[in-house]
Design goal:
The structure is a single chain. The chain is of the alpha+beta class. The protein has 2 domains: about 110 residues, Homing Intron 3 (I-Ppo) Encoded Endonuclease, Chain A (Alpha-Beta Complex); about 70 residues. Helix content is about 35%, strand content about 10%. It is built from 9 helices and 6 strands; from the N terminus they run αββββαββααααααα. The strands form 3 sheets. A two-stranded antiparallel sheet has the order 1-2. A two-stranded antiparallel sheet has the order 3-4. The N and C termini lie far apart (about 90 Å).
Length: about 230
């Protein structure tokens, strides 16, 4: 026996039938996903067309998160590139006063403030002064101890001689990065980073032939030295 067609009632009527209001949060009592957020089914996956009355913002979906639907009902369309965040950090809350449109960064900051990202008994939360960050981190104080970078990394396919040869062979519009990537069995992005000194900077000095701007700078430096 098939279930009730979701098109029999409007999306708003079905939404309000699954909301229980409290003094603080409006809790979603409908279906809840494994991520902890409530959701509502818009249409059957087998249906080729969505039922009538579905907003254009959700016409391409089979399900929609409850707090996103609440935002649409009370505030309108969700701005492009934005997500719906909670002030209260209650995932099943659909109170329009507790949700807002923000970025993924805003959502991450809310999680940190709520303390849900790490336990309250974590040593880093109890003793934040002991967490080494920035210039106090050991990698900043002792960069010479970092031995797994560049050609020393266990996943590196290139040697020092390969880096030197790549930079000497590369000539714009004559010996392309694509040819070099096929020759050395690596990605073109790796070759780009090598010839433009974005990686392997401390291994081999940049030759004067890899880029016209660098070549001009080197020539000026030589003339000034003389």
């Amino acid at each position: 026996m098939r279930g009730r067609n979701p098109g029999e009632k409007s999306i708003e009527e079905r939404f309000w039938s699954k909301v229980r209001r409290t003094n603080r949060c409006w809790l979603w009592i409908g279906a809840v996903g494994t991520n902890g957020y409530g959701f509502i089914r818009i249409r059957d996956r087998r249906a080729k067309r969505p039922p009538k009355g579905i907003p254009n913002d959700f016409i391409h979906l089979s399900h929609i998160l409850a707090h996103r639907l609440s935002y649409y009902i009370h505030h309108g369309s969700i701005p492009p590139g934005k997500i719906v965040c909670h002030h209260c950090n209650v995932k099943i809350c659909v109170n329009p006063n507790h949700i807002y449109s923000g970025t993924y960064s805003d959502n991450a900051h809310d999680t940190i403030k709520s303390g849900k990202n790490i336990g309250k008994n974590h040593w880093a939360r109890k003793h934040p002064e002991k967490v080494l960050r920035g210039n106090d981190h050991w990698t900043r104080k002792h960069p010479e101890k970092i031995t797994w970078r560049g050609v020393n990394h266990y996943l590196s396919k290139l040697s020092l001689s390969d880096i030197s040869r790549i930079r000497s062979l590369y000539v714009p519009r004559k010996f392309s990065q694509r040819k070099l990537s096929k020759m050395f069995g690596t990605k073109q992005g790796t070759i780009y980073n090598i010839v433009n000194q974005l990686s392997y900077q401390s291994h081999v000095e940049l030759p004067a032939t890899h880029r016209q701007s660098k070549q001009a700078e080197q020539k000026r430096g030589r003339s000034e030295a003389v």
